[in-house]
Amino acid sequence: MNAVFPGSFDPITSGHMDVLTRASRIFDHVTVTVMHNARKQGRHLFTLDERLEILESATGHLENVSVDSFDGLLVDYMSRSSQDKGIIIRGLRAVSDYEYELQIAHLNRQIGDTETVFIMAATRWSFVSSSMVREIASYGGDISEMVPHASAQALRHKHADIYAERDMQQRAQRESRLP
């Protein structure tokens, strides 16, 4: 059976990767789908093409995972494909996620006759979200454990001036401690 793991992935986090890796062990094939919402255009840090590129790099080691994008309703995406898309995968971090995701799952079943499987993110990633990672990176903070390498590189590139300044300050602090 196949599955679809939809999201905005702006950028993909270690929590997303945890859910995706575990889903890839359960399902024959998993398609990570960047859902492009025209109403949210301009609110993403990364363009759709950049997010797809990051995802391709981050998921390249998972043989039964592919990357795609879609603009519109997820249930339409699920039904338009020539191959069976199967199940919707949703990751959960906390009870508050469940309440929201449950409503979406019921709506998807009602309008598109699709089933949703929830996979709990590992506890160590329960606090990590794309928005928090973006904020930490915007201040030059260390996000290397919170995101796959491809996301970390892309975030450092987006905020290159901030990271360069932070690196200079840290170098100056180290040098001032030398005898």
UniProtKB/TrEMBL annotation:
<comment type="similarity">
    <text>Belongs to the bacterial CoaD family.</text>
</comment>
<keyword id="KW-0173">Coenzyme A biosynthesis</keyword>
<dbReference type="InterPro" id="IPR004821">
    <property type="entry name" value="Cyt_trans-like"/>
</dbReference>
<feature type="domain" description="Cytidyltransferase-like">
    <location>
        <begin position="4"/>
        <end position="135"/>
    </location>
</feature>
<protein>
    <recommendedName>
        <fullName>Phosphopantetheine adenylyltransferase</fullName>
        <ecNumber>2.7.7.3</ecNumber>
    </recommendedName>
</protein>
<keyword id="KW-0547">Nucleotide-binding</keyword>
<comment type="subunit">
    <text>Homohexamer.</text>
</comment>
<feature type="binding site">
    <location>
        <begin position="125"/>
        <end position="131"/>
    </location>
    <ligand>
        <name>ATP</name>
    </ligand>
</feature>
<comment type="pathway">
    <text>Cofactor biosynthesis; coenzyme A biosynthesis; CoA from (R)-pantothenate: step 4/5.</text>
</comment>
<keyword id="KW-0460">Magnesium</keyword>
<feature type="binding site">
    <location>
        <begin position="8"/>
        <end position="9"/>
    </location>
    <ligand>
        <name>ATP</name>
    </ligand>
</feature>
<dbReference type="InterPro" id="IPR001980">
    <property type="entry name" value="PPAT"/>
</dbReference>
<feature type="binding site">
    <location>
        <position position="16"/>
    </location>
    <ligand>
        <name>ATP</name>
    </ligand>
</feature>
<feature type="binding site">
    <location>
        <position position="101"/>
    </location>
    <ligand>
        <name>ATP</name>
    </ligand>
</feature>
<keyword id="KW-0808">Transferase</keyword>
<feature type="site" description="Transition state stabilizer">
    <location>
        <position position="16"/>
    </location>
</feature>
<comment type="function">
    <text>Reversibly transfers an adenylyl group from ATP to 4'-phosphopantetheine, yielding dephospho-CoA (dPCoA) and pyrophosphate.</text>
</comment>
<feature type="binding site">
    <location>
        <begin position="91"/>
        <end position="93"/>
    </location>
    <ligand>
        <name>ATP</name>
    </ligand>
</feature>
<dbReference type="GO" id="GO:0016779">
    <property type="term" value="F:nucleotidyltransferase activity"/>
</dbReference>
<feature type="binding site">
    <location>
        <position position="8"/>
    </location>
    <ligand>
        <name>substrate</name>
    </ligand>
</feature>
<keyword id="KW-0963">Cytoplasm</keyword>
<dbReference type="Pfam" id="PF01467">
    <property type="entry name" value="CTP_transf_like"/>
</dbReference>
<dbReference type="InterPro" id="IPR014729">
    <property type="entry name" value="Rossmann-like_a/b/a_fold"/>
</dbReference>
<feature type="binding site">
    <location>
        <position position="74"/>
    </location>
    <ligand>
        <name>substrate</name>
    </ligand>
</feature>
<keyword id="KW-0548">Nucleotidyltransferase</keyword>
<feature type="binding site">
    <location>
        <position position="40"/>
    </location>
    <ligand>
        <name>substrate</name>
    </ligand>
</feature>
<keyword id="KW-0067">ATP-binding</keyword>
<feature type="binding site">
    <location>
        <position position="90"/>
    </location>
    <ligand>
        <name>substrate</name>
    </ligand>
</feature>
